Amino acid sequence: MNSCLSPRNGRGFQACADLEMQMLRLFFEMDAVGVAAGVAVLRAASQGESVSRPRRALLFLVADGGEGPEGWERVYQEARSEGDPEVGAAACIAAVDATLGKGRGFDAWEPWCGRLADLLVSGVDMSAQARAALHLRQGLIALLRDGDAGAAERAAAAGLSLVDAGQSLPLALALGALAGLTDCLAGHVVRADVRLSDTVFLCQCSASGVFSRALVLSTLGLVKLLMGDAETASRMLDRVSHDVAAGGLPESLLMLVEGHRLYAMTALGRGHTVQDLADRIGGRVLPARNLLLEAYRHLALGAVALRNGQALRALVHAQESLDCGRRAAAQFPVLVAALLQLQALADLHRIEDAEACLARWYPEWTRLGLQRIAAIACQEQAMLQARRGELDLARRYRSKALGLLPPGESLLPLHRSQAWLDELEGVLSAANAASPESAHVVIRTLGEFVVEVKGRRIYDRDWKGLRTKSLLMALVAEGCYKIPAVRLADRLWPDSEGDQAMQNLKVALHRLRRLGCGPGETPVNWVHVKYGQVSLAKGVCWVEGDGLSTRKETCRIAP
C-alpha cells in the first residue's frame, strides 16, 4: 500500500489498481470496515486530484455513504462507457443497498433490476464474487419488494453455486441465510434448521465477516422461533449483539435483530423486556421513517397483542404494518401482516371478514411460494370453524393446511401459544369422541340432569338464568338434533310474541355456548343453528345413552 502513495511511480499506479480491485472484492463481501480502511489509503494517494476513474469514484462514494441515486447512476454509466462490468455491478449493488437501508421507496429498484439481470446474462467477464453479490440482491428484491419466496430461493441457489467452492465465505454465508429464510417460508423448517445450524460453525472463521455472521445467526434465531424454541433463538440473537462492538453492521440489520428479539421475549413471557425493546425500536425506527422496519415493528407488537388476548390491538397493528409495507412499495411485509390481520379478525369473531381475508390472500401466498403462511392461515380457519362447531369443515381446513407442507413437517402455529394449539387439537380429537372422557360437553340424563364442560361440572349458579338450563333440557328432550328454533321458542316463552320469543332464544343460546368459559375466553360452539334448526354438535357433545343419537328415546330426560 505504501507504493500507492507515489502515484508518479509505475509500480505505485499498479499498487493502487491492485488495491482498488481488493477494495471491490471487500465491497462485494460486505466488509464495510475493510473498504473504509482501503479508501483512506486511496484518498491519500489522490493528493487532492479530481477523481474521474469509475472504480475510485465508486469506492469514494461507498466510503462517504453515497450521494443519492444520481451518484450511483453516474458511476454506472461511466463504468459502461469504459467497459468495466465489475464497477457496473458494484454500482447496481450500492443503489439497491442504499434503498434497502432507507427502508422505503422500493419501487426505485425497478431500473436497477433490469441492469442486474443484464449483467448476469450478458456473459461479460466478472469475478465470481461480483456475480454472487448480484444474485444476492436479486433474491432480496424478489423477496422484499415482490414477496416472491420462490424467485428469492432460485437467486440464492444461483449465487451459492458460484461461491460454495471457497470463492467467498462471507457471500456463501449471506446467500445461505437467504436460502434458509426461503426454505422456512416454503415450509421446509427442518431443512432450514439443519443447514443454518451447520453454517453457524463456519461463522467461527475470522474470514466469515461480521455482516454475514449477523445474517446467519439472526435467520437461525428466527427459524428457532418458528420451531417453538424461544430459548435457543434468544441465545442466537444475543450472539449477534456481541458482534455489534466490532462495527460494520448497518442500522437496518440491527433493528431487524431487535425485532426478532421482541418475538423471542414475548414467547418467553418476559413482559418488561418486551416493553423495553419495543420502546428502543420505536425510538430509532420512527424518526428515521424506515417504513420497512416500521412494518416489522407493528407486526411484532401485533403478535405480542394477539398472544396476550388483545385482538383489537393486534388488528390495528396488522393494519398499520400493511399500510407501511404498501407505502414502502414492499410486498413481503404486506403478505405477512395479512396473516396477522386474519388471526385478529378470527379472535374478534368477525367470521365473514376472516374468511374474506383468506380468500383474498391465499392465492397470493401459494403463488409466491409462501406455503407455510398459507398453511398457518388454513390452520387458523380450522380453529375458527372448530369454535363454531363446524367440525367437518374444521377437519378439511386442517387437512388442507397439512397438505401444503412437505411430508414430516409439523404445523406449528405463528403468533400463537402452545395452549392455542392444544385447544385446536383437543377439539378436533373430540370430533371422533365416543366417550365422556374425550368430549367437550358431557350431558348425563339418567337420574339427575348433570352437565360438564371441559371436565368441570356446571352448577345452578353457573347457568346465568334458569331459561338457559331449560333450553338445554328441551334440546335433549327433543332429540338433540335439528329441532326447529320456532318450536323451542314457543315451548320456552309461550306468553311472548313471536319476534320477542326468538330474541329470547338467541340470548339463551349465546349464554349456553359460553357455559363454562372464563372472562375473555373464546367459546367452542357446541350448539349449532342452521336453516332455522338447533342441534348439539356431533362429537363435541356426549349425551348419556347413545351419544348424539337421532333416536329421541335415548336422549329424553327421565320424568
How would the blueprint of this fold be written?
Blueprint: H1 10-28, H2 32-46, H3 54-63, H4 69-81, H5 85-102, H6 110-121, H7 128-145, H8 149-163, H9 169-185, H10 189-202, H11 210-226, H12 230-244, H13 251-267, H14 271-285, H15 291-307, H16 311-327, H17 331-347, H18 351-367, H19 371-387, H20 391-403, H21 418-430, E1 441-444, E2 450-453, E3 456-457, H22 466-477, E4 483-484, H23 485-492, H24 498-513, E5 527-530, E6 533-536, E7 541-543
Parallel strand pairs: 1-7
Antiparallel strand pairs: 1-2, 2-3, 4-6, 5-6
Helix pairs in contact: 1-2, 2-3, 3-4, 3-5, 4-5, 5-6, 5-7, 6-7, 7-8, 7-9, 8-9, 9-10, 9-11, 10-11, 11-12, 11-13, 12-13, 13-14, 13-15, 14-15, 15-16, 15-17, 16-17, 17-18, 17-19, 18-19, 19-20, 22-24, 23-24
Question: What does this entry look like structurally?
Answer:
With 559 residues, the protein is mainly α. Among the domains are: 182 residues, Serine Threonine Protein Phosphatase 5, Tetratricopeptide repeat (Alpha Horseshoe), CATH 1.25.40.10; 114 residues, Arc Repressor Mutant, subunit A (Orthogonal Bundle), CATH 1.10.10.10. It has a 4-stranded mixed sheet, with no helix packed on it. Strands 4-6-5 form a 3-stranded antiparallel sheet. Strand 1 and strand 2 form a beta hairpin. Helix 8 packs antiparallel against helix 9 and helix 17 packs parallel to helix 19. The protein starts with 9 loop residues before the first helix and ends in a 16-residue tail after the last strand.
